[in-house]
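Narrative of accomplishments. A recurring question from our advisory board has been how the design workflow behaves on a single, concrete structure rather than in aggregate. To address it, we present the structure tokens for one chain from the evaluation set, followed by the sequence designed for it. No filtering or post-editing was applied between the two.
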């Protein structure tokens, strides 16, 4: 993909994010996806509060699709298939779905999140040990499993794969 420090040539939608680096990265990602998907993302970015977890999920979805497209795959975001809208679909030359791609966000567990929030209220710095909660492997397994179950029937019907696990660490 394009180097994210590169300033986009065309900012046809104006400022999307208040963060200059993220704004630049969004426009660099837009270079790899179709106009219709660009507008879908623009609509989502405008709707979502910029301090929410959901906007980062949307940002990660965009990065994933742009990456897949940069590798020569024809991708579409939330491509409607039998009333379902996977994050991304990989299409063949005849626009038939070859693969369903779903992004899985794996967040820290609630107990650790609460502990961090408490430390932030009372201290200038925080400390936590990421392996303190030993159920992370089990949580990750179930997170991926739950996503697969949503599209399992559709994937079998279309005789396509669900692309997983595909790790994107941001």
């Amino acid at each position: 993909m394009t180097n994210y420090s590169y300033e986009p040539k065309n900012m046809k939608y104006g400022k999307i994010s208040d963060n200059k680096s993220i704004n630049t990265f969004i426009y660099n990602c837009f270079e790899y996806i179709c106009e219709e998907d660009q507008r879908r993302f623009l609509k989502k970015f405008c709707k979502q509060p910029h301090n929410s977890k959901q906007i980062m999920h949307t940002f990660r979805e965009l990065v994933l699709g742009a990456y897949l497209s940069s590798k020569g795959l024809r991708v579409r975001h939330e491509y409607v298939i039998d009333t379902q809208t996977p994050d991304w679909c990989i299409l063949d030359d005849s626009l038939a779905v070859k693969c369903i791609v779903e992004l899985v966000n794996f967040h820290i567990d609630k107990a650790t999140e609460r502990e961090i929030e408490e430390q932030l209220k009372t201290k200038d710095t925080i400390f936590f040990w990421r392996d303190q909660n030993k159920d992370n492997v089990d949580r990750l397994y179930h997170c991926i499993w739950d996503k697969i179950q949503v599209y399992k029937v559709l994937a079998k019907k279309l005789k396509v794969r669900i692309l997983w696990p595909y790790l994107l660490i941001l």
